[in-house]
User: What shape does this take?
Amino acid sequence: MSGIIRTYKRDEDAVLHFREAWYDDEFNQFVVNHGVVGHQSRTEEADVEDGDSVESLMAAFAAQCEEDGYEEIPEAEQFWVVAQIALKTKDGTERDRYLERKAKAALTSELAWRGLGVVDRSEIADSKLNIFCLCPDVNKAVNAIKVCIRGEDLDFTKLSIAASPHGAPGEFKVKHSPKTGAGFTL
Assistant: This one.
């Protein structure tokens, strides 16, 4: 079985929390990851004996989430957050493709372990590396992306970040730019 159940809930102080679960077939474990969105999560693993156990564990997890008021956030209610890194060449070089792989892996981990969403795709075009992330909280995702790019020794001075509602991908608003007042184009 593959797949992940990812759910969210706002507490009485409007703080967004998340819970997610998946089966790790490499280690034959059922994994539950949870925490406050934007903060490092806590993870618990349980050994799984057979495939039937996985189905029942996933069903039980989903039922417990529903009982506790957690639910999935539909893509349509999330945001596109694009991390854009300026490149020196129009179509990219082998070094730029390495940068793309490194940045995608780093952002995937940074966002996932903080309940901040997923890296959906990336592209190199028109002298830019664009990494598209689908996120439930724009501001926390932007902060996490900036921390991640700095922490991975990627060129922070060439990073721009913009966001738009999921249903309005043409309406990106700049959230971070190396130049004051700079626009954002894909």
Notes: The chain has a mean pLDDT of 93. Residues 22 and 178 are 38 Å apart (CA to CA). Residues 4-67 form one domain.
